[in-house]
Q: What sequence folds into this?
């Protein structure tokens, strides 16, 4: 919808200049950034659960993931869950 105050519609030439694309905010590829964020979330959940993966207080429950999925992600991301166990 186009609205105009008068009977004649005028276009300012500056409205027609193409927008300059902004460079990407990060030099880190998206896949690497997502993997790093996922790793941090898993490590935090493992710390909070004392290194426990399964059970009602385990990291899998905190992340709302099946135990097998979390174990697979831990292997894929090379997380040392024993390092995160405070005891």
A:
């Amino acid at each position: 919808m186009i609205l105009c105050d008068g009977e004649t519609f005028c276009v300012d030439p500056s409205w027609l200049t193409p927008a300059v694309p902004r460079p990407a905010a990060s030099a880190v590829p998206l896949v690497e950034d997502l993997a790093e964020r996922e790793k941090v979330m898993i490590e935090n959940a493992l710390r909070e659960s004392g290194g426990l993966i399964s059970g009602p207080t385990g990291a899998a429950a905190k992340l709302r993931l099946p135990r097998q999925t979390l174990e697979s992600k831990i292997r894929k991301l090379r997380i040392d869950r024993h390092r995160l166990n405070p005891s």
Summary: The helical segments are 30-48, 59-63, 67-76. The chain has a mean pLDDT of 84.
